[in-house]
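Lab notebook, entry 376. We have the chain sequence and a SMILES string for fe (ii) ion, and the next step in the workflow is to get a structural model of the bound complex before anyone spends time on docking refinements. Request logged below.

Task: model protein plus fe (ii) ion, output C-alpha cells.
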Amino acid sequence: MTITAKATGPARIKLLVWPTAHPASITETAWKNTNASQAATFKLNAVGTAGHGWSWRAVIQDQAAVGAATQDAVRTVPWRPKKGVNANFRFVVSSCMVLGLPAPALRVAVSANPVFFGMIGDMGYVDTKKRAAQDYRLYSNQFRDFLNHADSRPLLAKTALVGMQDDHDYGQDECDRTSWKPYAAQAFADLIPGAVATGISYRKWSVGAADFFLLDNRRFQDPKEGPFENGQYHSVLGNRQRTWLTNNLAASTARVKFVLAPMTFTWYWSDGEKKALVNFIERNVSGKVIFCTGDKHAAALVRPSTKTYQMLGGPINIDVKSPTHYRPNVLWTENGTGTPYSNVIGLVHVATTSNRVLLRLMREDGVELARVAVPI
Ligand SMILES: [Fe+2]
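Result returned:
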C-alpha cells in the first residue's frame, strides 16, 4: 500500500499502521521530511494487503524534532478480497469537480462503502484562471484543496484513493504529450498516492477475481493535428501504453476486467483507436471488459461490443453539462442526444460469487438514474 500523508507546513512525518482487527499489531515507519507540497509518501509492502481492513494515522513533528509530535486522525482502508478470490465488493469512479462548490455526490459515494474511489480526472480547473500564475504552487494548492474539500474528506478517511490526471490536472485544457505541464504532474505526484511525475503513469492491480487497469490519456496522447505515432489514427494511449494494455488484457484470466480511463471512450477516443481496441478484445480477451470513464460532463451506459461495456459516471458537481450526441450502441443517457441535467457518480457492484457485475449511475441525491447488469 502507498500512503501519502500531509501536514500544514514543512514537517517530518511517520506512520503508524495496523490491521483494523488487531490494533496492537502496529507497524511504525521511519520519519520522512515533507516534500514541496508539505506531504510525504510511504511505500509499504507488508501493510495494506488484501484480506484485512487497515487503519493508519500520521505522526507529525517539526523537522528539527524540537517540538512535541502530534498524532493525526485515524483513517481506514476497508477489507478487500485477495487476488483470485470470488467475493462481493463495490467501488466508485467519477471525475470533474469544482472545488468551490459542495459535492453531495461524494456523500453518496461514502454511503456505498467502496473499496476504493477512482478519481479519474479534473480535480479542479485552475488552468482556466487566466490571471493566476500557472506554476507548481497553483496545482499543489488545487490538489490539496481537493483532498481537504468538506465532501472529499469523509470519503478519503475511510477508503483508498485511486487518482489519475486528466487535462485540467496536467495544466492545460485538451493537452497532449507535447503540451502537458511537468510542474502540474510534479504537484500531483507529491500529493496523490501512486502517481509519478515522470515516466510510466499507467498501472494495474487486482481486487478479488477482478483485474483493474488505470490509463493515462494525456501524457502519451498524440497532438490532435498529428503526427500520429502509430501512423494510422489519433491515439490517446500511445503505442507503448496500448501494447501494455492489450498484452495484459489478453493475459488476464479474470472474468471481468475494468479499464479506468479519464477520457470518455465512446465520445472522445478516435474511431480508429476504439475499433482497434474493441476488435482486439473480441478476438483475444476472455471475459468482459468494462471501461469506466470520465471527462465528459454527462453520464452514460454503452455497450460497444459483445464483450465490452462503458460506464461514464460524472460529473461530480459541475453545472455546465455536455450533450451526448448520437453514437451507436448507447444503452442509456439522461436526455437522449441532448444535454443532461444531473451530477452523478458511477457505482460498481462486483459479485463474482453470483456471476454478475452491476453498473449503477447514482445521482447526487442518492437516486439511481440507470443501471445495467453485466453477466460474467
Ligand atoms: Fe471536466
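Notes for the group: The CA atoms of residues 69 and 100 lie 32 Å apart. Worth checking against the assay data. The first strand starts at residue 2 and ends at 6.
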